[in-house]
Amino acid sequence: MKYRIALPPLLAVAMITAAGCGAATDLSDARPANGEAGPVPIDVDGDGYGDLPISGVLGDPEDGDSYVGVLLGGEDGLSPERSVILTATDLDLPGSPTLEGVLDTGDLDGDGHTDLIVTTDDDDGYLVLGGPEGPTGPAIPLSWLSSDIERGLFAVSLAVGDMDGDGHTDVAFLDHIQGGPIDERESLYHRGPFDAEGEPAETRDLPLPEDIWDAELAAFDADGDAYQDLILINGRDESPATDLILRSGPDGPAEEVVGQTPLSHTRASGDVDGDGIADLLIGISGIPNNEPGYEHELRPGYVDTLLGSEGYLDAEPIRLDRDGEGMPGDAEDGDGFGKELLVGDVDGDGYDDVVSVGGPVYSYEEIFLLLGGPEGLRGTGSGPVNGPTSEEGTFGPHSLMDYNGDGYDDLLLSTGFPSRIGTSAEYALYLGGPDGFSDEPDTIFDTTDL
User: What angle is formed at CA 163 by the lines to CA 157 and CA 165, rounded to 5 degrees?
Assistant: First the structure.
């Protein structure tokens, strides 16, 4: 199955790994290409409001038509009443395959509208173009997203961003057989813009280090310049691991190996001290392995800030845990604080803030807002956001984006894994504001009855 490691922004969209693997934050949706504050907007219809890519099944879950689409943002945030959904028939796909979902997003053709990269159950990939009315068909086949490898073993990772600084969206592409060594992989750099047939301006090999296994790519602003850099996320189970950072330049990505990140469960990029230079945020959940017999290794979770102005890989970590100033409650072994990170400007003060999620093992019981400022991150000074309950599953972090256009980034939670394809989901939207998030969600909705 094609998948993209980790979270929203997804991709996208924020995407999460399949069950059994440690979740990894998707940095390509955490920062824009030019290093400015705030998350990369997903704006399919180009109206200035953030949009939510979705996928699911119409009608009966067993034999209904699969679809991809978006919920369009507006002054009242997100609403299923502003949905645009497209089936395989709408997209004019041959053979009526099952749509597995939105693999990634980005303005590939440079028209100012976010496009969707979608996949099907026959291991083919397509480009669905955005436009004033939202996503539209027919879908454009992407030859580099097709494979004849046995389904279930073929894995794809994309990093989407401007990696050569020319103002166009590029795609770094890595596929492999799960569990296979680097010589069984293909890694390519597709330089944008992409034309009406989905072809990039140029395609060339993307050399990667050879001593890696089961790694995934994500775009990452390593130094606040005009080039999106790459982070090579190493395969991991629940245990923390280091990741390799590859610097980009005028000739594209991976021109230089910058170094390795500290051990982490998750990582994100953001300018939390407002100096215009990207900082590296590292999350350690305190849960090294969820299997029986590892209870003695539990530790309190924490979030480390490595300031870009000090050369983040050499900087002294600024650590924040639940015992930190302004943080509610007490740090406890295995509290899961820092297991997931989302970045955006929630209170509109120009400093990036961080949403850190806590809870034992795979649960997301508490959601903390860590505010940015001249000295970096600090606690909220108020109680954590507690996600609502649902019969569809546990609410977890999905994205941090301005969905109602008021200048404050909003927190979106969703049930289950956002990349679990073919299922509907329930969502809870907490609007951002000068005082952070409200105690209760502004809107709760699901995609069951679209």
Answer: 160
Cis peptide before 374 (omega within 30 of 0): no
Cα–Cα distances (Å) from 396 to 137, 267, 373, 415, 444, in that order, read: 31, 17, 26, 6, 13
For residue 290, what pLDDT is reported? 59
Average pLDDT, the chain: 81
pLDDT band at 180 (very low <50, low <70, confident <90, very high): low
Which of 188-192, 334-338, 406-410, 423-427 shows the lowest mean pLDDT across its residues?
423-427
297 or 55, higher pLDDT: 55
Nearest to 364 by CA among 331, 380, 341, 383: 341
Please give the backbone phi and psi of residue 28, each rounded to the nearest 5 degrees, phi first. Answer: -70, -20
* CA nearest to 77, candidates 398, 426, 410, 436: 410
Whole-structure pTM value: 0.86
| SS3 per-residue string spanning the chain | CCCCCCCCCCCCCCCCCCCCCCCCCCHHHCCCCCCCCCCCCCCCCCCCCCCEEEEEECCCCCCCCEEEEEECCECCECCHHHEEEEECCCCCCCCCCCEEEEEEEECCCCCCCCEEEEEECCCCEEEEECCCCCCEEEEEEEHHHCCCCCCCCEEEEEEEECCCCCCCCEEEEEEEECCCEHHHEEEEEEECCCCCCCCCCEEEECCCCCCCECCEEEEECCCCCCCCEEEEECCCCCCCECCEEEEEECCEEEEEEEEECCCECEEEEECCCCCCCCEEEEEECCCCCCCCCCHHHCCCCEEEEECHHHCCCCCCCEEECCCCCCCCCCCCCCCCCCCEEEEECCCCCCCCEEEEEECCCCCCCEEEEEECCCCCCECCCCCCECCCCCCCCCEEEEEEECCCCCCCCEEEEEECCCCCCCCCCEEEEECCCCCCCCCCCCEEEECCCC
